[in-house]
Amino acid sequence: MQRKVIQQGPSTLMISLPSKWVKENNIKKGSDIELDIESNRIVISREIIQQKKAATITIKNKEDYMNRLIITKYRHGFDELLVNYEDPAVVDSIRKTLHNLLGMEIIDQKANSCTIKNIAEALDENAEAMFKRMFHIILTMADSCLEFAKKKDAAKLALILELRETLLKLAEFNLRVINKTANQSVEQKSLSFFSTWNIGVLGKMWSYLAKEWSEQKSPNKISLSNKEINFIDEVVQYTRDYYQLHYKTDAAILLKIRNKRYHLRKEGFALLETSKNKTIIFNLTCIVEKIYDMSITY
């Protein structure tokens, strides 16, 4: 579709909007529209922003939990719920309730609270926020692996495996949003798809460590040498380096990631020769390689 450019005043150029699009999107005098500039293209869109409703619920323990506390808020159109609790077992009951509430997912979980959000109706601009949440989940998983290695707290393994499920759902949601986004070029979509897909894979790789440990007869008695714990710590920091690179593309950080890769590879291969936890060391070495491969887009 072509339009003639009209000059309005000494320096303003204008074009008319297609009448069919104007009617379909209920555009009137004074209406706000979005303009996105992409190289030699301008994408015009009509965004209708709806008021989001949020609420806070407090549940002391599992015995006090009633699914109607969440279902009623869902029926009333609430998009985000912060649930405070004293007993972490409450989360199991919440997950069972959410199984029947389309679009509602736990997007953040702490020791005494969790945040539930309706992600099915999220706007496209929330995709980056969801991607950042995926990153934060991975960092929590990595930190929890290190804490388990140091203190042998089996609760950390359970948390990692729970976060894995949340991460994979967020990954699928983000891939869906990327495919549905109209104001991105093919190149932008490809890069976003690559990043989201690989963040999901990276999360799976950290969860493999938790799965390996949790399947042992006595996880709290697993023996790890100081060298092995230090290696886990270094790979956790390497994961954080990649997070920093993603949000602050910098040549110094990129060089750091490249140099640390060679150091960690050498250290990992040496440990494989002597370690009794070869599967763990192998998975950690694979995480290093995955992060390095992901860094090639920067």
- Structural class per helix/strand content? alpha+beta
The proportion of residues in beta strands is: 5-15%
Q: How many beta strands in the DSSP annotation?
A: 8
Query: How big is the Rg?
Result: 24 Å
What's the CATH class label of the largest domain?
Mainly Alpha
Structural domain tally: 3
Kindly identify the CATH topology of the largest domain. Answer: Methane Monooxygenase Hydroxylase, Chain G, domain 1
Helicity range of the residues? 55-70%
Relevant CATH superfamily of the largest domain = Phosphate transport system protein phou homolog 2, domain 2
Please tally the helical runs, counting DSSP H or I stretches of 4 or more residues: 9
Global shape: flat
Low-confidence stretches: none
SSE topology sketch:
Blueprint: E1 6-8, E2 12-14, H1 19-24, E3 34-38, E4 41-45, E5 54-59, H2 68-75, E6 80-85, H3 90-98, E7 104-109, E8 113-118, H4 127-151, H5 154-180, H6 186-214, H7 226-247, H8 251-274, H9 278-294
Parallel strand pairs: 5-6
Antiparallel strand pairs: 1-2, 3-4, 6-8, 7-8
Helix pairs in contact: 4-5, 4-6, 4-7, 5-6, 6-9, 7-8, 7-9, 8-9
Notable traits:
298 residues; alpha+beta; Translation Initiation Factor IF3; Methane Monooxygenase Hydroxylase, Chain G, domain 1; four-stranded mixed β-sheet; 56% helix
Concise synopsis of the structure shown:
By secondary structure, the chain is of the alpha+beta class. The protein is built from nine helices and eight strands.
